[in-house]
């Protein structure tokens, strides 16, 4: 019997396999940031252990960093960032700090440096490590104990994941993006539907996506409960990687591509589970509730709890509607927002900014709405400025910020006030995720831009023609 | 890590599904660089509400959390496990746990025991009708005992063994240092390496 893509990558990294024990898996790349690493370094110090492979370890500052110029004002945030700096210096780890040309959200900088490559195992103390699976890497989030384990041994003991195929047939309709697709997938299989699985996204619609769109898809695999998401590498992948800083060169490139081309699920491989999605039926998708599975097409209405027969499900929907301050049956398009956040490891790449800018050009952000545009990395920011996108955002009345995680989780000053409502291109609409008492609707970059203009959840199709042509 | 064999304590009914790690401990509480002191962040938003279960006597002193399905979803923050343990919890019972949370728990010594949802529902009723009821969790026998009721739970064999022995993963792995070296000798040369600082 053949193997799936995930099984192939797994098998290539098994250091040791023994009856009754988890496999010991080798880790090709370990990414670090300031929030989930300090206790791991403390553990190393206590046991007097060195970092085994400093050359396979990279750190950046992203969660706590302010997105306005100047130092970190919160002393606790500052301590966390300074602790990372001290740890990287003491243990000899390459760090991309605030102000560095390569600084940015950890899942944005790996791919843009070319560090993320097909067939690798990649971990980080961050659940959105699944992003890197877009390259055909097996990439997953880990906790701090595991961060320490990888620092000390460059391996992890793990039980093999099960495999699930998510096949997306047909073409995405005009105006429907990768974000809409993944929100629809999560709504279909639920926040626990992927538990224990690696999801492999396949099919015509996936093959036609750009690398950045594929990263958006794999990024949110964790929101369906999955350990990882993967997409088989192809020419789109190789074209993206070629020439990047850490991509192989010359003969090594040819050797690598030949090996990478083998990283496809065999025709006779069997998945543990399969899900089919018809891309042609999709439309812009947004969340109404307090977990990423509580989403609907933008054209739908807020659910009516009385219509739900199952007690537990009805209670969950009622709680979510109450927290979100919504009225059952209200058309989603009538929900007005205070804030629009464009950014995060889900949608903070250059294509996301371009798509949003294309919608905003010639429009103004609605009165009373605040729009934050936070590039995912310093490089994305520079690229956007070179293309004049920053002017489009600023001219429309949005704020153009420095790179970081920002309002995705509000560890820096970018937060929602209690009761405030956002349309956000990030990945989680949990209670209080963007600030205590804040209410989040997850949307695509183009829906975010259209919503900023109208002040209510909207798609670009809802906008009038621009007043002026820029 | 401390050994875990059996634990008896006050059961706390948490009638919620999809309790994500942002609810267990919001991001603003993740800024500490130490491994202890996270109890103030545990369920911070919910604890602001007087009617929340942990604000009720005798649940305040609970150590066995009985939660709805899909507990621990979302962020990989191990701080969620530390917050539960710093508060005093030693066991979480649920019919479904998110993978990363379950893995983190096993590394830190918090037992995540998987029960059938109907058993969870019965436990909720028992604990709500008789607040302060003690629940005994026996890892050796894989049972949860509450009054006259005994429920079987699932936990994977390897995690159970490590918890029973109180073993540290890293020292276990370092016993295989030679195998790691042998593996490294055959890694493809095209794989990326960064310059060391």
Automatic annotation (TrEMBL), chain A:
Q: Which UniProt keywords apply?
A: 4Fe-4S, Amino-acid biosynthesis, Branched-chain amino acid biosynthesis, Iron, Iron-sulfur, Leucine biosynthesis, Lyase, Metal-binding
Q: In which pathway does it act?
A: Amino-acid biosynthesis; L-leucine biosynthesis; L-leucine from 3-methyl-2-oxobutanoate: step 2/4
Q: Which residues bind [4Fe-4S] cluster?
A: 345, 405, 408
Q: Look up keyword Iron and say if it applies.
A: yes
Enzyme Commission number, as recorded: 4.2.1.33
What does the record give as cofactor? [4Fe-4S] cluster
GO-annotated biological processes: L-leucine biosynthetic process
Reactions catalysed, as given in the entry: (2R,3S)-3-isopropylmalate = (2S)-2-isopropylmalate
Gene3D superfamilies according to UniProt: Aconitase, domain 3 (3.30.499.10)
Q: Where is this region: Disordered?
A: 416-439
What the record notes about the co-factor is: Binds 1 [4Fe-4S] cluster per subunit.
State the SUPFAM superfamilies in the record: Aconitase iron-sulfur domain
Provide the top EC class: lyase
Instruction: List, alphabetically, the InterPro entries matched.
Output: 3-IsopropMal_deHydase_lsu (IPR004430), Acnase/IPM_dHydase_lsu_aba_1/3 (IPR015931), Acoase/IPM_deHydtase_lsu_aba (IPR001030), Aconitase_4Fe-4S_BS (IPR018136), Aconitase_4Fe-4S_dom (IPR036008), IPM_dehydratase_rel_enz (IPR050067), IPMI_cat (IPR033941)
Q: Can you give the residue ranges of the Aconitase/3-isopropylmalate dehydratase large subunit alpha/beta/alpha domain?
A: 7-455
Task: Give the molecular function GO annotations.
Answer: 3-isopropylmalate dehydratase activity; 4 iron, 4 sulfur cluster binding; metal ion binding
Subunit description: Heterodimer of LeuC and LeuD.
Query: What this chain does, per the record?
Result: Catalyzes the isomerization between 2-isopropylmalate and 3-isopropylmalate, via the formation of 2-isopropylmaleate.
Q: Of which family is this protein a member? A: Belongs to the aconitase/IPM isomerase family. LeuC type 1 subfamily.
PANTHER family, alphabetically?
3-ISOPROPYLMALATE DEHYDRATASE (PTHR43822:SF9), HOMOACONITASE, MITOCHONDRIAL-RELATED (PTHR43822)
What this protein is called in its record is 3-isopropylmalate dehydratase large subunit
From TrEMBL, chain B:
Which EC class does it fall in? lyase
A Gene Ontology biological process in which this protein takes part is: L-leucine biosynthetic process
Q: In which pathway does it act?
A: Amino-acid biosynthesis; L-leucine biosynthesis; L-leucine from 3-methyl-2-oxobutanoate: step 2/4
One cellular component term (GO) for this entry is: 3-isopropylmalate dehydratase complex
Q: Which SUPFAM superfamilies match?
A: LeuD/IlvD-like (SSF52016)
In terms of InterPro entries, this protein maps to: 3-IsopropMal_deHydase_ssu, Aconitase/3IPM_dehydase_swvl, AconitaseA/IPMdHydase_ssu_swvl, IPMI_Swivel, LeuD
State its Enzyme Commission number(s).
Answer: 4.2.1.33
Q: Which UniProt keywords apply?
A: Amino-acid biosynthesis, Branched-chain amino acid biosynthesis, Leucine biosynthesis, Lyase
Q: Looking at the record's lineage, which domain of life comes first?
A: Bacteria
Q: Which residues cross the membrane?
A: none
Q: State the Gene Ontology terms under molecular function.
A: 3-isopropylmalate dehydratase activity
The residue range of the signal peptide is: none
Provide the reaction this enzyme catalyses.
(2R,3S)-3-isopropylmalate = (2S)-2-isopropylmalate
Instruction: Give start and end of each Aconitase A/isopropylmalate dehydratase small subunit swivel domain.
Output: 1-117
Keyword Lyase (UniProt) = yes
What is the similarity comment for this entry?
A: Belongs to the LeuD family. LeuD type 1 subfamily.
> Quaternary arrangement and interactors, per the entry?
Heterodimer of LeuC and LeuD.
Which PANTHER family does the record match to this protein?
A: 3-ISOPROPYLMALATE DEHYDRATASE SMALL SUBUNIT (PTHR43345:SF5), 3-ISOPROPYLMALATE DEHYDRATASE SMALL SUBUNIT 2-RELATED-RELATED (PTHR43345)
Q: What does this protein do?
A: Catalyzes the isomerization between 2-isopropylmalate and 3-isopropylmalate, via the formation of 2-isopropylmaleate.
What name goes with this protein? 3-isopropylmalate dehydratase small subunit
* UniProt source species: Metallococcus carri
């Amino acid at each position: 019997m053949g193997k799936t893509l995930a099984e192939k990558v797994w098998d290539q990294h098994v250091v040791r396999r023994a009856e009754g024990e988890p496999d010991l898996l080798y880790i090709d790349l370990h990414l670090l940031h300031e929030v989930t690493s300090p206790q791991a370094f403390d553990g190393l110090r206590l046991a007097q252990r060195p970092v085994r492979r400093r050359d396979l370890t990279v750190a950046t500052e992203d969660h706590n960093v302010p997105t306005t110029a100047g130092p970190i004002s919160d002393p606790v945030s500052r301590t966390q960032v300074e602790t990372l700096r001290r740890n990287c210096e003491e243990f000899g780890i390459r760090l991309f700090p605030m102000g560095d040309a390569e600084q940015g959200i950890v899942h944005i900088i790996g791919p843009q440096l070319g560090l993320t490559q097909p067939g690798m195992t990649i971990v980080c103390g961050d659940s959105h490590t699944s992003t890197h699976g877009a390259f055909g890497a097996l990439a997953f989030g880990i906790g701090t104990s595991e961060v320490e384990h990888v620092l000390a041994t460059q391996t992890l003991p793990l039980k093999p994941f099960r495999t699930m195929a998510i096949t997306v047939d047909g073409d995405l309709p005009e105006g429907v993006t990768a974000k809409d697709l993944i929100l629809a997938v999560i709504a279909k299989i639920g926040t626990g539907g992927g538990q224990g699985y690696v999801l492999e996204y396949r099919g015509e619609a996936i093959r036609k996506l750009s690398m950045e769109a594929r990263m958006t898809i794999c990024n949110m695999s964790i929101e369906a409960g999955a350990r990882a998401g993967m997409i088989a590498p192809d020419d789109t992948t190789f074209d993206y990687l070629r020439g990047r800083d850490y991509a192989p060169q010359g003969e090594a490139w040819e050797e690598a591509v030949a090996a990478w081309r083998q990283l496809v699920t065999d025709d006779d491989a069997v998945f543990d589970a399969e899900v089919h999605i018809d891309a042609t039926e999709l439309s812009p998708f947004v969340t109404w509730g307090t977990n990423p599975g509580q989403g609907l097409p933008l054209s739908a209405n807020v659910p009516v709890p009385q219509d739900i027969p199952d007690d537990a499900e009805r209670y969950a929907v009622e709680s979510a509607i109450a927290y979100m301050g919504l009225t059952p049956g209200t058309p989603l398009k009538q929900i007005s927002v205070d804030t629009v956040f464009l950014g995060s490891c889900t949608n903070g790449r250059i294509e996301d900014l371009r798509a949003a800018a294309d919608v905003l050009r010639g429009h103004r952000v609605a009165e009373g709405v605040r729009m934050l545009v936070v590039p995912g990395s310093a490089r994305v920011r520079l690229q956007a400025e070179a293309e004049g996108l920053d002017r489009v955002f600023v001219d429309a009345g949005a704020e153009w910020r420095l790179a970081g995680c920002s309002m995705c989780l509000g560890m820096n000053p970018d937060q929602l006030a209690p009761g405030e409502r956002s349309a956000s291109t990030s990945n989680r609409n949990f209670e209080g995720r963007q600030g205590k008492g804040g209410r989040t609707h997850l949307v695509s970059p183009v829906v975010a831009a259209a919503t900023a203009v109208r002040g209510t959840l909207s798609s670009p199709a809802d906008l009038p023609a621009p007043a002026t042509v820029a | 890590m401390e050994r875990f064999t059996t634990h008896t304590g006050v059961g706390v009914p948490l009638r919620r599904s999809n309790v994500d790690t942002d609810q267990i401990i919001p991001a603003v509480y993740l800024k500490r660089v130490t491994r202890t002191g996270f109890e103030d962040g545990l369920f911070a938003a919910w604890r602001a509400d007087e009617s929340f279960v942990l604000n009720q006597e005798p649940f305040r002193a609970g150590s066995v959390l009985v939660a709805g399905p899909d507990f621990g979803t979302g962020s990989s923050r191990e701080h969620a496990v530390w917050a539960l343990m710093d508060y005093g919890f030693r066991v979480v019972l649920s019919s479904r746990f998110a993978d990363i949370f379950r893995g983190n728990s096993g590394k830190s010594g918090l037992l995540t025991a998987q029960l059938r949802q109907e058993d969870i529902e019965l436990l909720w009723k028992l604990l709500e009708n008789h607040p302060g009821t003690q629940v005994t969790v026996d890892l050796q026998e894989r049972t949860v005992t509450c009054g006259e009721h005994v429920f079987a739970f699932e936990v994977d064999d390897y995690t159970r063994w490590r918890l029973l022995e109180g073993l540290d993963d890293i020292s276990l792995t370092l016993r295989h240092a030679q195998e790691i070296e042998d593996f490294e000798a055959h890694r493809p040369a095209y794989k990326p390496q960064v310059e060391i600082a």
